[in-house]
UniProtKB/TrEMBL annotation, chains A, B:
Root EC class: hydrolase
EC number(s) reported in the record: 3.7.1.2
A Pfam family the protein falls into: FAA_hydrolase_N
Pathway recorded for this protein: Amino-acid degradation; L-phenylalanine degradation; acetoacetate and fumarate from L-phenylalanine: step 6/6
Protein name per Swiss-Prot or TrEMBL: fumarylacetoacetase
Cofactor: Ca(2+); Mg(2+)
Domain Fumarylacetoacetase N-terminal: 25-127
Segments forming domain Fumarylacetoacetase-like C-terminal: 134-402
Species of provenance: Olleya sediminilitoris
Any one GO molecular function term: fumarylacetoacetase activity
C-alpha cells in the first residue's frame, strides 16, 4: 500500500510552524481528554489536536473497515490490533482530509468545532494499556561506559553482550505520560564500607534517555518472529525516560536484575509516532563486531536516524541541555530485539512496550544518563543558572526531545517532561 | 465482617467427596467457558461448577452492591477491584445458597439447570488479565541450594538476601492456565568450555514449584503499602509453575536477570482460592536471621500452611511424585513482598500476580525444582516406570497440587497440569 501520508510535498490547511514536530507528514496517534471531559483517540497537526472519534462519527473514514467505537476508547490497543493495513488506510485518509486542497472539513465550520482542539484544551493520557513492558540494553556505548565504571575497563562488555540483545522485564503499572510528576523513591542502600543496608531516600536519582516501541498482536505462544518480519509488528515509537535510582540498584540487582531502582516510574511522550512515518529516516545497521547467530542476522537499514536531547530545568530557572544523542547509535535494532524476545515462543501483544535501553552516543557530550555524563559524580555537569548536577535534584524537571529531519521534512516526538518531587509524605489522618 | 463462609460445620446440598479440595468452605473464583460457549465467572463446590453470572441474573445476590455485569466478564479484574468487603459478602452469600438447609436453589430445577455445570462441560480460562507479574526468590532453602551449587557453599546466600525480599519482573503474556501445553524453548546457550554460544533447544527444562498471589487495586504512584496492611490487598492464591530453561538462563542472566529462560511460559491453577478461605491455616513467621528494616517488620502469623507436591507423568505411564514441600517454609511472607514492592511507590493494581519463587523445604525430598532434586543432574530422580529424570523430557506432564488441612476441613487448589511438547515447528506454507 502506498504511504501517501508520507508525501513530503503535501501542505495542510491547518497552520504548522516551520520547526513543528507535527507537520501533516507525521500524523501520530494519542489519547486525550477533551474540554468536554470525554476521552478520545486523536492525532495532531501543528498545534491542533484532532478528535478521530468525532471525525469517524461524522463519516470521514467511510470505506475503511473500522468498528463504530474504534476511536471512542481510552486506549489505542484495539486500533493497533487492527493491523498495519488499517493504520495505513487511516493515516492516508487523515492526510487527505487535512490536505490544503481538500475543503470537505476545512469549509465546514460546524464539523470543525467538534473535531479540532487547541492543545491547551486537552489533556494527554497514556496512549495504550501496556500489557508487558520490556527494557533492552542495546547501546554499546552505554554498556561499555557502565562496564568501565563498575567492572573492568579492559573487559567492559560482558561475554554475552555481543551475542544477545540483552533485555529484562520491567513494570507496566508505573509507566506514566509526560507531565505527571514523580516522587524521589525511598529504599535500601548499602553505604560505602558498610555491611548492613540503611533505609532512606535515594541520593542518586537519574534519567535514562531511551526510545520505546509499541507492538501489535504478533505471535502465538511458542511461535518465534523472524528478524526480517519484525517491523511488521511495530506500530510506532515514543520517547522514554527510564527513571533510575542508582544507589538502590547497586544493592538490589545481584542476581536477578534491577527492580525497585527502576519500577517507581518511567515517563513517555504521549504521541506515538508511527514506524510508517519514520520510513524516510532509516539508517544503516552498525557492523556486527562478532558474528551473530542466524536468527539475529538482519537485512540492511533497520536503524533510524532520530536526534535526541535531554534538558534539565531547575525550579524557577532556565533549562540546560545536558546531552545530545541519536537513536541511530543502537548496536541492536528493534527488529533484533523482537526476534530475540520471541525466539523462545514468548507471545507479544497489542500495546506491549519495549524500551531501547539508554541511548549513549560515542562522545562524552552524547551520553544518555547522568551516571555517564558526570562519570558517577566525578565530573559535575554545569547548569546555565550556575549550579551543578551530578544526578537529579528535587524539583528539577527533566525534558527529553526527539526529531528526524531530512530534505526539509521534520518528524518529531514532542517531548517527555517530568518533574522530580521530594519523597512522598503520607497524608496525615486525624 | 464475619467470615461465615468459613464455618467448618456447614455442609452443602451439592455432593462433595471426602477428599475434595473444594468443600463449601473453599468457594474459590475462576472464569470458564460453558457448554453454551459463553464465558462467565464462577465458583466450584465439589465437582460442580457454578455460574455466578447466571446466579446474579436470577437475583440470588440481591442486596449486595454489584453491577449487573460484574460476573458476565472474561476476567475477575473488576470484581477483584470491588474490594474485600464485596468479596466477603459474595462468598458468604454463596455459602448460604448452597447450605444443606437452604432450598431456594436446591429445589428449583429450572434455575439449577442454568447455574450448575459438570466439570467436563466447562473449560477453565485464565482467571485474571494480569497487568504486571512479579516473581520473588523468597525461600531460603532454594536460595541456599542455588548459591551452594553455583557459587560458594560457605557463602551461599548473597549479601542482600537476608535484607531484601529479592524479586524481579516477569512476563504476563505467557502465563497460561492448567491444561495448555508448552513447547520446549529454543535459544542461545554456552556449551561447557566454549567461548561462543550455540543455538538450539534447551536441554535443561525445569519446573519451579511456586504459589502466586493476586492483588486488588492497592496504592497510587508514590505511595507505599505498610507491611501489616498488605493482606488487605491480596485477593487470593493459585499454584504456579514457573517453567525455566536452566542452560538459557546461565548464559543470559548476567547482569539484568532471567529473561528468555523464564518468559516462554508459566502455568497456573485456574481456581483462585481466596486469602479469606485460607485464614484457618495461618502459620508462624520464620525467625529473622538478621534484623529487618522497620518497613519489613511484620506482626505474627503471616505465613500459610499449605501442603504442596509435584508429580511427573511420562507419556503413557503413571505419574511419580518427585517432591513434597510446604508454603509455610517461605522466609519472606507475601506481606513483606508487597511492602517491599511498594516502598518506592510502585503502583499495584487489580489482577497483578506475584510469585513466591521456588518453594523448597529443608530436606532433599522437599526441594522445589529438578535443578535441586537432581542436584544439577548429578543425582537422577527415579520414576515409577523405571526411567530416570535429571530435568523434564519432551512429552512429560508436570502436575502440581496443593491443599491445607486442619480439624477435618480441607481447602485445596486443585492442580496445575502442563505437558511439555517438543520444540515448535512452524507450519509449512505452500
Amino acid at each position: 500500500m502506498p504511504l501517501s501520508a508520507n508525501n513530503p510535498d503535501r501542505k495542510s490547511w491547518l497552520h504548522v510552524d516551520k520547526n513543528s514536530d507535527f507537520p501533516i507528514q507525521n500524523i501520530p496517534f494519542g489519547v486525550f481528554l477533551t474540554r468536554d471531559d470525554i476521552i478520545t483517540i486523536g492525532t495532531r497537526i501543528g498545534d491542533t489536536a484532532i478528535d478521530l472519534g468525532a471525525l469517524h462519527q461524522l463519516g470521514y473514514f467511510e470505506g475503511i473497515p473500522l468498528t463504530d467505537d474504534i476511536f471512542l476508547q481510552d486506549t489505542l490497543n484495539d486500533f493497533i490490533a487492527d493491523g498495519r493495513k488499517t493504520w495505513r488506510l487511516v493515516r492516508n485518509r487523515i492526510a487527505e482530509i487535512f490536505d490544503a486542497d481538500n475543503t470537505s472539513l476545512k469549509d465546514n465550520v460546524k464539523n470543525k468545532e467538534v473535531v479540532l482542539f487547541r492543545l491547551d484544551e486537552i489533556e494527554m493520557q497514556l496512549p495504550v494499556q501496556i500489557g508487558d513492558y520490556t527494557d533492552f540494553y542495546s547501546s554499546i556505548e552505554h554498556a561499555t561506559n557502565v562496564g568501565t565504571m563498575f567492572r573492568d575497563p579492559d573487559n567492559a562488555l560482558l561475554p554475552n553482550w555481543l551475542h544477545i540483545p540483552v533485555g529484562y522485564h520491567g513494570r507496566s503499572s508505573s509507566i506514566i505520560p509526560s507531565g505527571i510528576p514523580v516522587h524521589r523513591p525511598q529504599g535500601q542502600t548499602l553505604p560505602a564500607g558498610a555491611t548492613e543496608p540503611v533505609f532512606g531516600p535515594s541520593k542518586l536519582v537519574d534519567f535514562e534517555l531511551e526510545m520505546a516501541f509499541i507492538t501489535t498482536d504478533a505471535n502465538d505462544l511458542g511461535e518465534p518472529i523472524p528478524v526480517n518480519e519484525a517491523e511488521e509488528y511495530i506500530f510506532g515509537l515514543v520517547l522514554f525516560n527510564d527513571w533510575s535510582a542508582r544507589d538502590i540498584q547497586k544493592w538490589e540487582y545481584i542476581p536477578l536484575g534491577p527492580f525497585l531502582a527502576k519500577n517507581f516510574a518511567s515517563s513517555i511522550s504521549p504521541w506515538i509516532v508511527t514506524l510508517d512515518a519514520l520510513q524516510p529516516f532509516k539508517a544503516d545497521n552498525p557492523k556486527p563486531l562478532k558474528k551473530q547467530l542466524p536468527y539475529l542476522q538482519q537485512s540492511a537499514k533497520k536503524n533510524y536516524d532520530i536526534n535526541l536531547e535531554v534538558a534539565i530545568q531547575p525550579e524557577k530557572a532556565k533549562e540546560t541541555v545536558v546531552t545530545r544523542s541519536n537513536f541511530k547509535h543502537m548496536y541492536w535494532s528493534m527488529s533484533q530485539q523482537l526476534a530475540h524476545h520471541t525466539i523462545n515462543g514468548c507471545p507479544v501483544n497489542s500495546g506491549d512496550m519495549m524500551g531501547s535501553g539508554t541511548i549513549s552516543g560515542p562522545t562524552p557530550d552524547s551520553y544518555g544518563s547522568m551516571l555517564e555524563l558526570s562519570w558517577r559524580g566525578e565530573k559535575p555537569v554545569k547548569m546555565q543558572d550556575g549550579t551543578e548536577r551530578k544526578f537529579i535534584n528535587d524539583n528539577d524537571t527533566v525534558i527529553m526531545r526527539g526529531y528526524c529531519e531530512k530534505d526539509g521534512t521534520r518528524i518529531g516526538f514532542g517531548e517527555v517532561k517530568t518533574k522530580l518531587l521530594p519523597v512522598f509524605e503520607p497524608k496525615k489522618t486525624k
